[in-house]
Design brief:
alpha+beta; globular
């Protein structure tokens, strides 16, 4: 389970998550463009996605390259990682202070998450599984008539699941 995301570019540097439903709310004035969708894209980035850097280029343009540190807990074991906008193809395994221990490729990281979430038996990639549940403005998976399509250009037969 995702426990925390830390970034020195956030207004509130540490975002904590709890078991169950976590909600991203705007302000009381229902203001647009305050970062709700960007935060959801950061969460997707933490789960190994690439859409954040493709669709939110303005974030890096405005704030410069930066790092996201994140903490997962699986079977009562803490796991700490770091991923940067300047080298998104790498994820660093870290210690509890987010000091880098070892780099792993983004594909290795996705495999680690698939294993830790107990999804190894599924004949899908981790990103295929996550993308089915991650609906954020700006991603190509918002077609309500085809909810199991990760991308609108995929043919119906290319989505397969084995349980």
């Amino acid at each position: 389970m995702l426990i925390e995301i830390f970034c020195d570019k956030f207004r509130q540097e540490r975002l904590h998550f709890k078991s169950g439903l976590n909600v991203v709310l705007g302000d009381e004035a229902a203001t647009n463009s305050i970062g709700k969708s960007s935060l959801l894209m950061v969460i997707d980035f933490v789960f190994g996605g690439d859409t954040f850097l493709e669709h939110n280029k303005d974030v890096v343009e405005e704030m410069g390259d930066h790092e996201y540190c994140f903490h997962f807990k699986f079977d009562n074991v803490n796991n700490y990682f770091k991923r940067a906008t300047f080298s998104p193809e790498l994820v660093y395994e870290c210690d509890a202070d987010y000091l880098e221990v070892a780099p792993i490729s983004i594909d290795q990281y996705r495999s680690v998450l698939k294993l830790k979430y107990g999804l190894s038996d599924l004949n899908l990639t981790f990103r295929s599984i996550v993308s089915l549940h991650s609906r954020v403005w700006g991603k190509d998976n918002l077609d309500v008539k085809r909810p199991l399509h990760v991308h609108r250009n995929k043919k119906t037969g290319s989505v397969s699941m084995t349980c």
